Histidine phosphotransferase family protein
Amino acid sequence: MSDAPSPATASAPDMLELAALLCSRVCHDLISPVGAIVNGLEVLDDDPKPEDREFALDLIRKSAKTASARLQFCRLAFGAAGSSGAQIDLGDAQTMAKGHIEDGKCTITWNLPRLLLPKNRVKLLLNMLVVSQHTIPRGGMLTVDAIGEGETMSFRITATGHNARLPQNISELLSGERGPAADAHAIQPYYTRLLAQACGLTVTLKLEGEAVIVTAS
């Protein structure tokens, strides 16, 4: 009998690869708004007409706001967010999630109470929101509900929107059927699975009618 590792085990990243891929994911999220800021500054450097100057300043303002929101979200979703055993306010998580995800195409209905939860559960919730966003590529609504209460609370996110779907690669990464490919996109659902395991939970995706349900249980 062969002792070769399973595909999921063979392709799972070590700690250095995990850190590198998460950093790549953060950089991917930030490169667009930061690049727009640079473009706006270049327009200003060219001594533009008044209308072009106002356009450049508006671009810089909006892009700086987007970059700040994404940084704050990534700090909470992927970063240390306090010492071991720290707790995070769900109200802060709501603010970060809305700032990062709500963009005119996607909105969040947040039905969670405001309380402190262990940081890994809050990080899991934020990563579940990113997973849910991928199921409605044309935008829609993400509805966040609690399962249970107190420090053992888990979550259910209902994603509704035109052409809601189950991305096959994300489902496999969450279920552990395979490890992540070596890119910043695949590492996020893989990291979501690691967070769920740390909380003693499993994240599943399920298509119900025209909605996708993402559950941690």
